[in-house]
Amino acid sequence: MSDTIGETRTRFFEYNDPAHPLVLRVGAPLPAFTLAYEMYGTMNADRSNVILLYHAMTGNQHAAGFNPEVPGLDGRWTEENHEGWWDGFIGPGKALDTDRFCVLCANYLGGCYGSTGPASIDPATGRPWGPSFPVLRMSDIVDSQIKLLDHLGVSRLHAVVGASIGGFLGLLTAARYPDRVRIVLPIGTGVETSIYQRIINFEQVNAIEADPNFRGGDYYDGARPDLGLALARRIAHKTFVSLDTLRERARTELVSTKPPYGWYEMNHPVESYMLHQGKKFVRRFDANSYLRILDAWQWFNLVDEAGATSFKDLFSRCRHQEFLVFSIDSDLSFPPRDQARLVRLLKRAGVPVMWITVHSEKGHDAFLLEPRSFAPHIHQLLEDTRTPATTFPSS
Q1: Which of the following is catalytic: 120, 164, 242, 289?
Q2: Per residue in 129-171, pLDDT tens?
Q3: Which of 232, 234, 350, 357 has its CA 20 to 30 A from that of 333?
Q4: Which residues of 188-220 are buried (b: 16+ CB within 10 A; e: fewer)?
Q5: 122 has catalytic annotation
Q6: CA–CA distance from 208 to each of 77, 217, 280, 287, 290 (Å)?
Q7: Is 158 a catalytic residue?
Q8: Cα 132 from Cα 284, distance rounded (Å)
Q9: Which residues touch 273 (CB under 8 Å, ≥6 apart)?
Q10: What are the pLDDT digits (tens) for 55-65?
Q11: pTM, rounded to two decimals
């Protein structure tokens, strides 16, 4: 049997219920919104085999297979998006085995790949939402996807999986809706926004807002803030990829002797590589969506957003769940100490947990690039939940 999903398509969940709007943590409730999503595999009769997958910050709903087109995205569905970003993990016989499970992945509320976001049309004005789009928090993204699960008739997930800030969302789903989750798989994530991340994120915000074309976020009728967004991407990119990997990738880049913006002439392949990464990114992403997600990251508070009083209170809700936590030893964005803290908190709350460290030279992006390092552990836990993971005593 082929281990590939083949061609896929994006579906759209239209929520419109003024009597039961999506209640946001900041600002007025949202009575209507759209979520773009994809599904791989088939739901069983009682819909108990569903795995909810959260993408990383600039990812999308297309996690597996080949999808050449998503309508209405103003050119953002570039060739870079056509192949599923977790294709090595999802499919028959793979870590997320679609012969047994149905995998669901949705573009975040506030995103720019078909879900309602700043680039979407505001029905009240007939123009893009732009800067008037509601402020979002991570719990709003989770709650919107819970409404999608309700629509699909999924009362309890077999597992929730998320890497990077997708791991934030996975943890929040497990703690905010503990009776709806069986297995939790956080990869390269943590329980809070670190000081390092805050600095990097703040630099990106400044880069975008300093672009003269940003105009406070109201740029859809004119030139886009491409210089600012490209700079933001370069600031972030170096945290996702290890320095050794950057050196290797840059060797294939041509060095231009032409100054990209002014007098400075690039003199090393890594400069050309980083310049290219920024230019490529602006073709596929929206600056306002980027800022909304960064803002949610900066304000992320797992305890408060889960409605808990402490980490112990929060994770005590998860004692009937099983956790498999992954670290990546070369991760600069979410270093292993972040997962060490998560595991300590889980142990103290008496939650069944396993902790695996992946040894990789790829950095944070190893979770995208090296499925063989993760797949055996994921496959084992998802396929055989008869033997609980070890429950560590409280310390």
Answers
A1: 164
A2: 999 999 999 999 999 999 999 999 999 999 999 999 999 999 9
A3: 350
A4: bbbbebeeebeebbeebbebbbebeebbebebb
A5: no
A6: 21, 9, 16, 7, 9
A7: no
A8: 22
A9: 246, 249, 250, 253
A10: 999 999 999 99
A11: 0.94
